[in-house]
Amino acid sequence: MKRLFLPILVVFVFFMMVFLGDERLARLSGSTELDVITLRAAHSKAWNHPVSQGIDKFAELVEEKSDGEIIIETYHDGLIGDDREVIESAQRGSIAFASSSTPNMTSFTNYFTAWDLPYIFENKEEVYKAIDGEPGDIVRAEMEKSGFKVIFFPDYGFRQIVNNTKAIEKPSDLDGMKIRTTNSRIEQADFTALGASPTPVAWSEVFTALQQGTVDGEGNTYSLLWDSKHQEVLSHAAEVNYNYSSDILVMNKDLYEELEPYQQEIIMEAGQEAMEWQRVVATERDEEAKQQFIDYGIEIYEPTDEEYLEWKQATEIVWDQYVREGYAEPDYVDTILDTLGKTKESIFEE
Questions:
Q1: pLDDT over 90 at 192, yes or no
Q2: What are 300's strand-pairing partners?
Q3: Mind listing the pLDDT tens digit for each residue in 118-129?
Q4: 77-109 confidence digits (pLDDT tens)
Q5: What span, in angstroms and rounded, lies between the C-alpha atoms of 14 and 289?
Q6: Pairing state of beta strands 197-200 and 178-181?
Q7: Distance between terminal CA atoms of the chain?
Q8: Is the dihedral of CA 211, 215, 221, 222 positive or negative?
Q9: Which of 92, 132, 138, 241 is least surrounded, with the fewest CB atoms within 10 Å of its CB?
Q10: Which residues pair with 247 in a beta bridge?
Q11: Burial of 55 from C-beta contacts in 10 A (0-12 / 13-18 / 19+)
Q12: CA-to-CA distance for 151 and 320, rounded, in angstroms?
């Protein structure tokens, strides 16, 4: 029996090696078919949000372009974790892809801090010009130093100021109001400059905080607010575009480099096409959500050009505080402005 056992064991180990293949790829893929690579992509937004739709479109395109050789399973609604948790999982290689809002990526590079500056982007054309140009390329290179391959930047949108207390038409109307913010120091500084009391609250707790009066309002996009049912605890909105937020879809860099060159090309082509598709969807959805707010009975204030300039000028102090080394890197801010063909003065003195 002992003589028979050793050959049987050797044969068993051999077949296990053949069927399991590379340990790392098998661990990440979860696939039992040798000719199919199954990878996971996760993030925290609702399944029907435009960012989620863009990631689903990316997965669809990858499967189509690879003739089913690469399958990407998408996990929305924080099923695998919040922004920080899924990004850390992707960095470790526990999952292949993760998406996060860019303010939560400042721990990897200060360059994202510049994206948070109030009114550095004044419309989506400027956003896309920066992301598709040198400022975006600089970020892509920096993210590789942290172990990420940037796939694409899903469009998130401009944040508006909403509340359940009173109409807001000028910055002074915010005096003393408690406004929920992200952990972004820039966003908190925005509301301090506007006279409000910035109150960081985890996204999952914002609805209850509004309901219970822990905060009076928040800043976010129409689409995310509506899809998260925040209209139920809101009554007023001020469309002042004080901040643009982007998302970012990244892939574990080591895993990306283990793929065959033609597979890498498929991933990147699908990312570019998904981004172009998602930008249209995100813009249409935000316009639709704005109308849903109006139909629901929420009053939306849209400032005149003169009033809009007042909102911008009220936040200029944030640039003075944060455009410095270690925060919003001055050279990078200049790169963005040069790419857009404008200056700080042109933003605040129009």
A1: yes
A2: 237
A3: 999 999 999 999
A4: 989 998 889 999 999 999 999 999 888 888 899
A5: 58
A6: parallel
A7: 90
A8: positive
A9: 92
A10: 101
A11: buried
A12: 33
Integer angstrom CA distances of residue 137 from 159, 252, 275, 276: 24, 18, 15, 17
**At 281, which amino acid appears?**
V
CA–CA separation, 282 and 155 (whole Å): 6
CA atoms within 13 A on the CB side of 92: 9
> What's the alpha-carbon Rg for the chain, to the nearest Å?
23
Give this prediction's pTM.
0.87
| Locus of tokens 């893929």 | 29
d(CA 115, CA 143): 15
Cα(99)–Cα(249) distance, rounded to whole angstroms? 4
**pLDDT the model gives residue 8:** 47
- Name beta bridge partners: 97: 41, 251
Backbone φ and ψ for 153, nearest 5 degrees, come out as: -110, 100
State the Cα–Cα distance between residues 165 and 298, nearest whole angstrom.
12
Q: Rounded CA gap, 52 and 45, in Å?
A: 7
Distance of CA 86 to the CA centre of its chain: 12
- Give the pLDDT confidence score for residue 350 in this predicted structure: 66
The dihedrals phi and psi of 251, each to the nearest 5 degrees, come to -125, 145
Q: For residues 98 and 121, give the distance between their C-alpha atoms in angstroms, rounded to a whole number.
A: 25
Alpha-carbon distance values, 187 to 132, 141, 236, 327 (Å): 24, 25, 20, 13
